[in-house]
Protein 1
Amino acid sequence: MRHQTQYIGFTSLVAAAILLFATSCKKDGYALPTPSAKLQNQAIKRTLGPNIVGQPIEFAYAMAILKGKLTSCTAAASIAGAAGTYMENRSFYTAQNGADVGVTVGSPAVTKGTTTTVTYSVDTNAATLRYYYVIPEAARGKTVTITFTATSSDGESISTVMGPYTIAKMDMELNMKVSDGNMMYISIGDSTVYNATDAAAHAGSVDLVYLYRNLTTSAFNHALVAPAADPQYLPGVSLPAGVNRTAKLLKTFNLQDHNLAPTEQYGGIFIDDVDFQQIDLSNSPNFTINLKQGAGVWVETADGKYRAYIYFNAVTTTGTATISMKRYPLK
Amino acid sequence: MKRNITIALTILLAATGWVACKKTTPVDSNGLLITTRRECSVSSFELLGTDYVSVRVGAAVIDTIAQTVKVTVAFGTDLKNLYPQFSLTQDCLLDPGITGMTDFSNLANPRKWTVVSGDRQIRKAYSVVITVQPR
């Protein structure tokens, strides 16, 4: 009886193992896909980050047909692109060394109004063309869509719509040179830097004073100070007549916006409209001192018209610095 | 057979009783463990600016008798937006907890935090006294 029980248990175990293997080795019902004979297309957006007026948005548009050849490729924007908008007439592939290699497949792009067209000049049934849409001023704060269309020799056409993409309200000014004692008066509203003479002429729009002090008693170094700040933060500065505005300033470090600092190793961050909308500067002072390369300052102007982010790209020990700015209009 | 069943039942009952009578671990309203420790002090202190970089000039001076933390901060520090960080002796907690930037601009009235011991029976109020480095 005992032997019989053991035998039944062993048999059951073997049967279960066989069943398990048989189930796990079952083939999936896979068949090689059959390519469609129709005209095919696909588009990707290659550009990352916010869409800023004056900056390009890059697309790659791929099109292919099994029989026949490609005849034209068109990109139609909902708002006409600014000067510099174009489509490559070369199709790119990636070489073994990783480099993009272009092969001319059509005539140079022709842009009429909102539409950019490349007409194929070679017999090809597959190509990937790149389209660079330079964001126009007219699109600021609006949305843009791009419709890509490919046509083939048999009269077929196919389209892909990309977007809608929201165009940022903010703008930016890169690599402004500031220097203590000379170009030291910064206007957010005018997006520029003035010397004392020009600052006096634009006194109502000067928001910040750049200065550098190498003190032995405290770490002052590079500073951005509102003209109306306590004079202890403006040592040795004689403000031009009428330069007396205040501002709200918030100091940061290592907020390396990729648009403002594209070469920074960790600059994978993008400041967008929403960051300006949400930041709270109500409790901030009107001075920031001891700023270094990589430092940044959030600013709100006294009249509440603008918020800005000023990034220190480079500084020297002789009282000069290179700064870049993103600016968002609040009103 | 009957004897075996009796032994098995006895063992089972004993095991159940042992598990059921095991003490539960006490926790406070924040879910933190209440222990038997009675030490109650600040062991180190840090103060960060809005850029999350230390604004201290020199080390903070902690007096566990006077229950004060004295810190000198750099000239030009934004006193309304500072982020304090306390290190406490084991199992202690800070009341109120630190939730973000804190206003230290009223230098005449130093801000206070209470350190609570691990057994939650001892409470010591520490004052954080800020001095601004001259220019």
Protein 2
Amino acid sequence: MTKPAEALPPAVEDYLAEVTARLPGSARVHADIVAELRAGLLDATDSHQCAGLSPAEAAQAAVLEFGDPGEIADGFKGEIAASHARRVAFALLLTGPLVGSLWIVSAATSHLAIRLAALWQWSATTAGIGVGIHLVAVAAMVTAWAALLGIAVTGRLTRWLPAKPSRAPIAAAVAGYGAVGADALGLVLLAAELTLAPGRLSPLPVAAAAVASLVRLLLASRAAHRCLALRASLA
Amino acid sequence: MRAETLKGHLDGILLAVLETGPRHGYAIMEALRVRSDGQVDLPTGTVYPALHRLERAGLIEANWSEASGRRRRVYQLTPAGHRALDTERSSWRDFSAAVSALLQPAAPAVSPS
């Protein structure tokens, strides 16, 4: 904001505080919603004042006209959940291939036994790891499809789908936990590989991939948890 | 008219109000009252989440504008919004024509005797 906000009539200020208190998420998430409602309430106050009410009466009338603060907050809850879910889904879709290619680079720069094996033959390089690699692939697929679904239902498709605000946060949460699964499993496999066949991996790329996976795991788990919390907050 | 009566048509109504040009939230509400001769009188606050949903659906777009020290979010129809409004209009015409025909007092039946 470039200029200091206009002084708010107490009735308007109380009303905005009541709506904000019911909104899920941080003040940063609320800022635009509150700014928009504030302008609307002040416009309404002006309009009532033009009609002859005193400033205090006009503010009171504006607040009455806007209706139950709980109803507005309920209306915005679905929107907040949808935009959070959409951001999470995009982030997961973008970081997935990134983390995945770090692991591929680590394998490609590692010991001959791994480097020379084709992608689909890695599973044969160390006994027992094969199953794990397949599970990582399954988790990655779940993540990708759930994220795509989350993006689809929060965008243009909104027009044709029956309104169901819980859909997007659930899809994003599934994608998030899918990513947690893929990354956690990847790290477990790394630990297994280091124990079973030490010295075959090249340290630097592997460290980079492991750190990337760990960071993504933590962020995805937080985001997925928040998606579920937002879903729970929907009436 | 109460909110429940309008349910399912609010989106089309909001698009229709924006057809004449960009407006901010409160101006949309005022236009709604004026155009409906005061028949539509929703709680103003309910319009804002609906506008955000239409924006997410790509039917309208919003820009912040600042006038006389007040930052307002101004909405306008997108090409997809124009198309959605056309569809909404024609389906409403069909629907209301059918219901009007059905609610029409029937021609008095010839009394049997």
